[in-house]
Structures are given as C-alpha cells and as structure tokens.
C-alpha cells in the first residue's frame, strides 16, 4: 500500500494513535496487528515505525496519555470545602471524564496484562497516583468522622471500579443523561463510604 497523499507527521501521528486506540478497544491489543493499524491510517506497515518504536510502546503511550490527562484534569477540578464535597467532586469528575473517553478507559483498565514489565511499572504508578487522590479524600473523611470505612484502600478500589464501570453500559441515547447518572452514582458512592 502506498503512502496516502498528505501523510505527514503532524497528521499521521495523531491518526495513528486514534486508529490504534479504536482498534485496541474494539478487538483487544493482542488481536490487532500493525498491518491493521497501517491500513486504518492509510500507510504501509513499515511507515508506522517512523512514529512509534513498536506496538508495545504504542499501547504504553496510549495508556500514559490517558492517565496523564486524567491527573491533569483532576488537578484543575474545583473540589469545594471538606471531604464530602471533595468526594462528590471526584465522583462527578470521574464519570464525566471517563464517559467522554470510553475507548481510552477500556484500554487503560483492561490492557494492563499486555504491558511488558517496564511499561507496566510506569502505568501502574500513574494509576496508583490517581487512586491516591481518592484515598486521601477518604482518609480525611474517616479521620473527621464523616465516613464510616474500615479500610480506605479497599474502599478506594471499590469506588473506582464502580465509577469506571459506567463506561461499559452507558449510551448517549439511553434513558439517563450523563448528569442523572453522575447524580445516581454520587448517591451510591455516598452510601458506600457511610457518609
């Protein structure tokens, strides 16, 4: 396959990432070949290596980008005063952010098993960094007597799993709006932590 006219790094690089993300989310990392990605982008398979080191590096880059964007967005999110307000802000933020990026979410949470050890360690550290943001809120709420939690680490993992799961079933044309879903999830999270 010949290179598509207009295939330049500022165009092809982002298209490559978008195609890989879409294919990995739809078929799974292990099932997608570099040839499939190249065909989606409109370049020869060998040309992909002008933009990425290898398929493993591409997967790690997609995950890294998602998690770095997540952490940066949360850093900018208004939280309100106190742990209850912060927990509500986290809940609504997490749902809003993730519903806008279902493919990136699927890859970031379901394809960890396909990462080689150095990439796994890097991505796991970013995930833990985000989890720590929530656990800090839960610790503060428990210390203030606002949350009834025997184990903040376990509660953190449970809440994140519950919130992230929304991307597997939510549909824009479904019966619930994003705001309604966020409100219902906030009610469930509040009850989960004994607030």
From TrEMBL:
Residues 33-52 bind DNA. Residues 10-70 form the HTH tetR-type domain. Signal peptide: none annotated. One of its GO terms (molecular function) is transcription cis-regulatory region binding. Pfam families: TetR_C_24 (PF17932), TetR_N (PF00440). Transmembrane segments: none annotated. InterPro entries: Homeodomain-like_sf, HTH-type_TetR-like_transc_reg, HTH_TetR, KstR2_TetR_C, Tet_transcr_reg_TetR-rel_C_sf. It comes from the Bacteria. Keywords: DNA-binding. This is TetR family transcriptional regulator. It comes from Rhodovulum euryhalinum. The lineage of its organism: Bacteria, Pseudomonadati, Pseudomonadota, Alphaproteobacteria, Rhodobacterales.
